Amino acid sequence: MLLWSLLFLCYSLLFVCTEGCRRSSDSSNKITVKVNNETIPENHRLFCTKNETRSLACLNGGSCFAVYIEDRTVQCACYSKYKGRRCEMIDPEIIFDDKETGQKEVAIGLISGFAASIFLFIVFVIIGCVWFIKQKPPGNQYTATRTN
């Protein structure tokens, strides 16, 4: 029974470790809509002044917004296909197909899972050898008797 619970525990840990290796960060926090001319209560963004808009000069349809935390900070809200301080760069996720990154994630998960299972196999072999040696009865001890 102890062996089955140990196997279940190791399998569970192996599953958790390999699932963690395949996960990537969530990119759902990108701003995909323009900020309008009012304060948005959900995130406290303010509309930029004309001078701030000119000085920041957001590109590719990006919108200027300001946030007041200690100081007034001005940034660009980019559409989902652009990024950078002024929305000047194309997002690389658009250029590279998601299938390529998905295949890489699966390969990494398989490699890490295979390595972890080899490690667990070696650990079980060592535990089995130690257990077998402890269970082995002491060797036959022959006493030599001389017949004269």
UniProtKB/TrEMBL annotation:
Residues of the EGF-like domain: 49-88
Segments passing through the bilayer: 106-133
Signal peptide bounds: 1-20
Domain of life, per lineage: Eukaryota
Keywords: Disulfide bond, EGF-like domain, Membrane, Signal, Transmembrane, Transmembrane helix
SUPFAM superfamilies reported in the protein's UniProt record: EGF/Laminin
Disulphide-bonded residues: 78-87
InterPro entries found in the cross-reference section: EGF (IPR000742)
Designated name of the protein: EGF-like domain-containing protein
Organism per entry: Mytilus galloprovincialis (Mediterranean mussel)
